[in-house]
Amino acid sequence: METIRDNRSQELRRFFPDYTWNYIADAILEGSMGEVRVDDEEHPGVVQLSLPEFKVHILGGDPTRPAARECLDELQGLSTLLFGLQGWKELLYEVHEGKVVALQRYPFSSGKLDAEKLQTFTSQLPENFKIERMILQHARQILDEKGDLADGLLLGFTSAEDFIERGFGYCALENGKIVCVASTGAVCSKGIEVQINTHRKVRRQGLASAAGAALILECLERGIDPNWDAATEISAGLAKKLGYIPRDEYDVYIYAGSRLLVSLRNFLRRIRGKDI
What we know:
Elements: E1 2-4, H1 9-12, H2 24-29, E2 35-38, E3 46-51, E4 56-61, H3 66-73, E5 79-83, H4 88-95, E6 100-109, H5 115-122, E7 129-133, H6 136-144, H7 160-166, E8 169-174, E9 177-187, E10 191-198, H8 207-222, E11 225-227, E12 229-230, H9 233-242, E13 245-246, E14 250-255, H10 259-272
Parallel strand pairs: 4-5, 10-11
Antiparallel strand pairs: 1-2, 2-3, 3-4, 5-14, 6-12, 6-13, 6-14, 7-8, 8-9, 9-10
């Protein structure tokens, strides 16, 4: 597999006909984040879209080609995999038998969003909190943050300056300190991914609803699709609250790198009686 540098989004998007849940693949193909690898630059049959720093890989093309198995053989432990075509899941389980965990995600449609309803959330803040549009200082503070608030935020941006140039967002502040952030994640010509994080100590106070609504309203005003692809039922519940419509759920796959880790996870699920 070789890395390609030029923008070939239109040509290579056809290798991912089943990938419709979010805009991460499009953002990588357009060159705004990640990297693109192909088995043959002139006549590609297998395409790998990656966010190497997060060990996230989207695989498309013909899973019967030798390069498909090579991609899976090269995986590092705790890699996240998504597939753009049928047949890849079966190959993954064949190559890494007993070392894979499937996790459910909850995609949504933004087609029924109501600006008037969203506006009500931005005005329902508790005392001592206020919503501000993100500026460079906010972005720098978030990137310097080491706690749960910054986890996964500003995905796809190389720096605070890059975020201010290509993205936007809103934050909730308590006495001048950022405690909740709603920002653009992956950015492409079709739309953006909504990302929202709230500090643990101030959750369930409407901050995510207010900051998220402000972000979504700006997207609607600018004619940008604010896509929502939830990893948890809590995130899915917030999406429904804001007016998103659920789509069919789908699976992502975690290559654990060890049968022992998968066995331990399955054991804990059994004794707790629920997913972990």
